[in-house]
Amino acid sequence: MTSDEVNRINYRLRSTFFYRKLKEYKTLSLRNKIDQILPAKHLYSWQCWADWGIGEDAFAYINEHGNLQLIQVFCHPSLIREHSILIAYYRNIAALSQKAVKSLVNIDVKKLEIDEENRYPLKEDQAKRLAQLFNEHISLIIDSSIESLTEDELYGILLASTGTQIDGSWRNAIGEEAEKVVQRLLVKEAKERNFLAALLPRVGTAIELYNPEKLEEQLGNIERYKGVRLVNQTSMLFSSEPDISLLGKQGTTVGVIEVKGGTDPAGALERYGAAKKSFEEAFRRNSQVKTILVASCITPEVHTRIQNDSIISTYFNLTEILSEDSTKYEQFVQEVFSILRT
What is the pTM for the complete model shown? Predict the structure, then answer.
């Protein structure tokens, strides 16, 4: 695999990873959550603003600002205790990563920021420490702007900070993103072929019938689902070991797909071994199962082993599947849907 091919696949997966994480972090919805609270801004007292780490000049500037409200800019301890998901808003306005927050005040905010139902109550002292941390940084930003911060710039910081966090997460996520890309490609193909019947949420037992009118909502948040059902009563399930299971009408596993997105040649043999182990388990349960390996990096040694490995039915290079030449992509999806006999 040439360095040019490595760069190509890495940057393509990076692009899809950024989009997926932006939706996962729900960054674009944070502004709206603050807007929903603005009508009740008078219910929050700012009498103790100095105690909460807000600088005097910064407070005066925002308090007299024509377009910005205190609650849009500064973190109020009561507010993040009532709505812990707003921690993400103020943390990003302060241009701090989750890792930085944990390092500075020893509070892990990761699960708090996605706690839509407020299942993890924030303690009083934690709320105050977080507010002080965020407000100190936000005050510094306002001071460094020489008191010229605008509403657009405020939300620009929000997005820039999110981008930095996503970039930091990317370094360890190439394998995961490769799996997600292949899953989304197969769901998209099922939709294009009019085979998609329903989506299976990861939480609960409800089945969501595919609705073309909700295309963006359903397929745009494919990570919410553990699989899909097709019109011929077969299904595709997403998990790990294997990454994708193809189930026949009677619930039997008729095919398994392993996706290995790593591009480091030094780890190619190890990734092949992990895929083979998953395939052997599938064979133990059903000797007729079809196995498909999708890998970003197939070295000459791994290629030779695959060619002599009867347990691997077929393999594809992920770079070729995602390339402009759709031949390999068409071969891949045709192989998958032929196993499901669609």
Answer: 0.63
